Amino acid sequence: MSTTKSIFFASDFHLGLPTHEEPCEREQRIVNWLHYIKPSAEELFLLGDIFDFWFEYRYVVPKGFIRFLATLAEFHDAGIPVHILTGNHDVWLFDYLPQEVGVDIIKGPHSFSRHGHRLYICHGDEVGHRPRSYRIMRKIFHSRTAQRLFAWLIHPDLAYAFAHRWSQKSRKVKPIAHNFRGNDEPLIQFFTQQNTTDRHSLYLAGHLHIPVLFPLPDETPSIVLGDWISAFTYAELTGNTVRLMRYSDKEKESSIISTAALPCHDVCIQSCEETNRTP
After folding, report:
1. What count of other Cβ atoms lies within 10 Å of the Cβ of residue 278?
2. Residue of 26, 100, 101 lying closest to 71 (CA atoms)
3. Is the pLDDT of residue 238 over 70?
4. How far is CA 247 from its chain centroid?
5. With b meaning 16 or more CB within 10 Å and e meaning fewer, what string describes 248-271?
6. CA–CA dist 40, 18 (Å, integer)
């Protein structure tokens, strides 16, 4: 792959979540950003909670999001791969988007190589310390048996009404943005432990709704991507450099929040050298 273009990462659009903005305005902001990055995009990764709730029945999918889905289809048609890693709000993404839009659905944390580096991506809800009640609920949500029973027994109108009420109640109980705790953050502790046994050059996650580029103890960069409810942030990887960026829809441009160079570990030093020699 050419290193003159960039790989983009974003998460937590929560399309369908009522906010101070009209749903169509918030969707249009995301679509405008996608058009903004498209000329320089080599690949796009969306790390979960793209929809505030999504469930695919056999013949029914959620209404809305037409502009957003059409833009993802434009990426696919232009030869730009789009990957959606499911989050805790859109875990029930199945085969509709791959078939109709051309995106790739990834379940769970994922490790892969790009630009001579190993990258680790996850949504963030599935790693680190989690209460036992959350682990049980997550196991049920991921159960194929539970998913089939839900589809057979619950009418779509009731399912979506319940999901939206649950989401709104959750937002009232706790704030959307998380208070980042640095090295004490469970997500960072997980990345640190992961990197001692299986080294990567970059870790990326969503879920916490706060944009942070934070170095692990060995200086390996980790990024929490923020959200598109209030932060409007994303990450851009170009060659050996990753940037945490903020998009302004008013200016139709982005600004750099922070930047880091990816380390060349022993397992990828030869690939890094080849990348650095690429004109």
Report:
1. 11
2. 101
3. yes
4. 16
5. eeeeeebeebeebebbbbeebeeb
6. 31
Beta strands in 62-150 (DSSP E): 82-85, 104-106, 110-114, 117-121
The closest of 33, 30, 38, 41 to 238, measured between CA atoms, is 41
SS3 259: strand
37-40's contacts with Cβ under 8 Å and 24+ in sequence apart are 37/6, 37/8, 37/236, 38/74, 38/75, 38/78, 38/80, 40/5, 40/6
8 A C-beta contact, residue 239 and residue 115: yes
Say which residues have a Cβ less than 8 Å from residue 224's Cβ, sequence separation at least 6. 124, 180, 187, 205, 206, 207, 208, 210, 211, 212, 214
Q: Would the pLDDT of 44 be above 60?
A: yes
pLDDT digits (tens, 9 = 90+) for 168-192: 655 554 556 668 888 999 999 999 9
Say what the pTM is. 0.85
* Interstrand relation of 6-10 and 233-238 (parallel, antiparallel or unpaired): antiparallel
Q: What DSSP line would sit under 35-47, residue for residue?
A: HHHGGGEEEEEE-
Closest CA to 92 of 53, 136, 129: 53
